[in-house]
């Protein structure tokens, strides 16, 4: 089975991926931030590196999805290929940080890739307000994220909301990050119970 966790920068995807994989004994697939050759450059000059970064993510996520389906294991994935194509790339384009030519090239690449992949069996969406995102980004202290602008996070949040309301290709579970702290055992138990219920429904569906 393929469980995927979606959400804005700083919403807690990596933390939840780690905690769910530990609890259910699933295999975690994390976002490739450490080995990403474009990420630091992108935050220094978004316009110059936006296309390169998005193509890198698209390629890496496409490879991940194919590996997940061929693995025969239950895998929990930190961020989905759909977020790259429906949120991050269009947002860069609308902010004039990616040219129309590059965006059209990117979009046609995603369109082709999407014909070869299946959506996750369960998508978990972590909804968080901008103050919560900022707080969590500051807490983890990644140097290249220090320059992220609040208006950038706000625009991403709007796109996330528009995307999740139209997401119909699979099951969705939404958690309000403002109201839960995954490091608290009772909040984590609440999340695990909901996930368990959704998956139990899947097994009987």
Beta-strand percent range: 5-15%
What share of the residues lie within helices? 55-70%
CATH architecture: 3-Layer(aba) Sandwich
- CATH secondary-structure class: Alpha Beta
Question: For the report, how would you describe the main beta sheet?
Answer: 5 strands, parallel
Query: Which residues form runs of ≥5 with pLDDT under 50?
Result: none
Mean pLDDT: 91
Arrangement of strands in the largest sheet = 2-3-1-4-5
Oligomer: single chain
* Helix-strand category: alpha/beta
Report the CATH superfamily.
Answer: P-loop containing nucleotide triphosphate hydrolases
Overall number of structural domains: 1
For the record, give the distance between the C-alpha atoms at the N and C termini, rounded to a whole number: 14 Å
Give the total of beta strands.
5
CATH topology: Rossmann fold
Summarize the helix and strand pattern as letters.
EHEHHEHHEHHEH
**How big is the Rg?**
17 Å
The number of helical elements comes to: 8
- The geometry reads as globular
Textual characterization of the structure:
- The mean pLDDT is about 90.
- The protein has about 200 residues and is of the alpha/beta class.
- The chain has helices at about 15-25, 40-45, 45-70, 80-95, 100-115, 130-140, 150-165, 185-205; strands at about 1-5, 25-30, 75-80, 120-125, 170-175.
- It has a five-stranded parallel beta sheet with strand order 2-3-1-4-5, with helices on both faces.
- The chain has one domain: 3-Layer(aba) Sandwich (Rossmann fold), CATH 3.40.50.300.
């Amino acid at each position: 089975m393929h469980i995927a966790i979606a959400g804005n920068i700083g919403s807690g995807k990596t933390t939840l991926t780690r905690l769910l994989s530990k609890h259910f004994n699933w295999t975690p697939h994390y976002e490739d931030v450490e080995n990403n050759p474009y990420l630091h450059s992108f935050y220094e000059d978004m316009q110059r590196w936006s296309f390169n970064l998005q193509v890198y993510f698209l390629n890496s996520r496409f490879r991940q999805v194919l590996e997940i389906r061929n693995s025969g294991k239950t895998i929990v994935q930190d961020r989905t290929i759909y977020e790259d194509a429906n949120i991050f790339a269009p947002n860069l384009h609308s902010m004039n940080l990616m040219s129309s030519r590059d965006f059209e090239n990117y979009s046609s690449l995603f369109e082709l890739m999407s014909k070869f992949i299946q959506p996750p069996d369960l998508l978990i969406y972590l909804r968080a307000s901008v103050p919560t995102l900022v707080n969590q980004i500051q807490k983890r202290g990644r140097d290249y994220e220090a320059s992220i602008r609040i208006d950038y996070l706000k625009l991403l949040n709007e796109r996330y909301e528009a995307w999740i309301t139209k997401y119909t290709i699979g099951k969705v579970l939404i958690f309000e990050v403002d109201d839960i702290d995954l490091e608290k055992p009772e909040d984590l138990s609440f999340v695990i119970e909901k996930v368990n219920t959704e998956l139990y429904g899947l097994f009987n569906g």
